[in-house]
Amino acid sequence: MPSEKKDPLLRTSGLTKRFGSVVANSEVSLEIDAGEIHCFLGENGAGKSTLAECIYGYLCPECGEIFFNGKKVDIKSPSDAIHLGIGMVHQHFILVRPLSVIENIVVGTDAAELFLDLSKATKRLEKLCSDYDISLDLNAKIWQLSVAEQQWVEILKALFGGVKLLILDEPTAVLTPQEADKLFVILRKMKQEGLSILFITHKLNEVMEVSDRVTVLRRGEKIATVNTAEVTREDLAKMMVGR
Asked: Would the pTM of this model clear 0.70, i.e. be above it?
């Protein structure tokens, strides 16, 4: 007998977000499976980041439903999302520059009681860095780090919090090609360990290289969700621009 398809990790149904008279997302329904790298692809202004921020609780949709781990959830804030196991790394990082890497990661988490004694948190973070081959001075101040290193701090913060779904909004915009390649290697390893990744981009080559499935958005509407291996760059380009 064929095995039953598992419920998706995340499902949205009819998600709609407006800004005044502008419809940023129009009745978007989609699914993200456990242990997959799923891309949101579209031109600038297609509604990719808005949709992700609705999922993360940074924005509240006017209508629609979100299901996580098979249950309907009411995500009213990023705090709600984080407690469910959803983390997001925005294009503009949310870090406190005078604080150290480890302080930025631990503050605001359930491990905050370790703030005065960071030994446990340090060991856990050192293991995460070792597991994913991330080279980072945990005691360095944020202002001392490169932009790429600051992005790793944001990713580590999400991993430290035990995310099941990691949302990355245009993560390669601040990376060199070599740094982007390293990111892709690490994302694949995260996927192998069961983590789901939502990767937002407008770059076709990134979609083809890293994703399992891709949802194409155009002018706030979902055009299609396809298996990446079954489409070409040209197919995706036509979906993006509508011609």
From this structure: yes
Cα separation, 152 vs 196, in Å, equals 17
* CB-count exposure of residue 106 (10 Å: 0-12, 13-18, 19+): buried
Residue closest to 90 by CA, chosen among 21, 170, 178, 182: 170
Picking from 37, 44, 18, the residue whose alpha carbon sits closest to that of residue 218 is 44
Which DSSP helix (H) or strand (E) runs through 238?
Answer: helix 233-241
Q: Which two tokens stand for residue 49?
A: 């980041």
As a whole number of angstroms, the distance between CA 47 and CA 23 comes to 9
Tens-digit pLDDT profile for residues 222-242: 999 999 999 999 999 999 988
Residue 188, H or E segment: helix 177-192
